[in-house]
Give the backbone structure.
Amino acid sequence: MKSSLMHPPADSAETGSSLGRDAWLRLKRNRLAHACMWALGLIVALCAGGAALSLAGVLPDPNATHLDQILEGPGARYWLGSDALGRDVFTRILFGGLVSLAVGVVATLVSVVIGVTYGAVAGYVGGRCDAVMMRFVDILYAMPFVILVIVLMALFGMNLFWLFIAIGAVEWLTMARIVRAQVMALKRQEFIEAARSLGLGHGAILFKHLIPNCFGPIIVYTTLTVPSVMRLEAVLSFLGMGVQPPNSSWGCLIKEGADRMTTSAGLLVFPAAAFAITLFCLNFLGDGLRDALDPKGAKD
Amino acid sequence: MIPLLRFVIDRLLQSLVVLVGILTLTFILLQLAPGNPFATEKNIPEHIVANMREYYGLNRPPVEQWFRMLLNYFVRFDGGESFTKDGFTVNEIILESLPVSLLVGGAGLAFALATGVPLGVVAAARRNRAGDYLASSLALAGICLPTFVLGPLAVSFFALELGWFTPAGWEDRRTDWILPSTVLGLFYMGYIARITRAGMLEALHQDYVRTALAKGLSEGRILVVHALRHGLLPLVSFLGPAVAGILAGSFVVETIFGLPGMGLLTVVAARDRDLPLLTGSVMTYGAMVLVSNFLSDLAQYWMNPRMRGAGGGLS
């Protein structure tokens, strides 16, 4: 995987501004990835639209309990049934999906910002500083991530904001390694020397010239981080350490469903299906993007 | 041989530094975290808490506590006494939990390798044909159906419906590992298959494969004898950190199946602020990660002749 991420920068220089366009055309040719992109759009639209309709009162309120209508099967009143407190499963899945997707996107962004900056600085500065910074990454790599998340959440309280930060703070390590390797390869190229001889400062070279040239691998790895962040959120929520009630997420819903699966399987199956389909699409889209942005793959 | 020896020594020293770092970071994090190990529902009298703090040396300055810990770990190989499990030392508790995780994880890993590698090879050999789509979808299903969905489903079907296994717990050691290992293995099967597929695709583009084809060797022989060695390299580098993760115990699987393994132990120790126990399990995990990364690098060195020249690839 690593080797396919590292396309020689010379290629992007040759194709110039049309790299993005080429990649887009290649992505569109990949039917499965293209379909997954539309499916993801549909899922986001469904979650957002459903939530809006629910707030407007057209669809049921996901937190309204009806203790006389508990654990109903799917039907006209509750499209996907009702849970143990008589809440509508369908709208709960839509709202939970919004939270899961938001965690996926925001925590990924946090991890990208940390990872790219850290990796780029380590690779650019090099030497002893790089060695120390990378040893620190090794240390974090060799620690169970739960510990970091548990301690961060215990320190700052269990709310969504700190959940974003905590997940982002444990998911940046691989990105840092990828970007560092890229920057180390790029910094010896002539265009950096040119930039330096023009009198540009380190910051400008790093953020205007080096990092933009790493965008390919960054984008690819980012799309592959989103599903793994979403899985991490679900795992934490499943263990009761993630999203807290009254908020809900797909992980929380799966947990609730797993507790009642023997009596009403729908409570587990529907949120699990939503979660699995989303992960499936994200993974295929990530693979498609990798093929599209990787000039080596274009030869086939 | 000299570059290899140098690599081994370098790596040992690095690992020592990383282990000290892990210990220190765990210590700092736990010092920062609110809550204390003696806060229970029962109202323990003030002077007893003071006695306990004295007994465990928590009244001493943090630097001294940290230094003692360092000494205990790297000189005496002793994790001290657990705060929450009275009368048990950390070493005893970990020696009790580790075999459970090793057994379940080892079986899971074997299952994942035995199914994932063939799936990946088939997918690569039949690229963009029906066989590829079938194998790739199977692999992705393993990744997208999380353990915490598959686990409960497996329990409800195989344990509650069919009655083949006990739903949870660790009593009947002949059968209790089967379900958790399979569920754990399915997840890694997906990753292994995908990485194998990508690695094999790259291997099949190499010139020596074309040469082998031109010589008229059979497809099967080329796949297994020529391409596999190169194609499995990415998998071996993935397995470095992954093997430690599998063997050290998944807390999700252990929670679902009620297994007294390392994963669960770590989470419980973190929740209860049991500093010695948590440090012990984090250090065990860290040591396993370092060992398996080291083995993975050695395996790559052995598998890839290009890395041997001047010891260049080893870093």
User: Anything to note?
Assistant: The first helix of chain A runs from residue 2 to 5. Residues 1-15 of chain A have pLDDT under 50 and may be disordered. Chain A is about 75% helix and 0% strand.
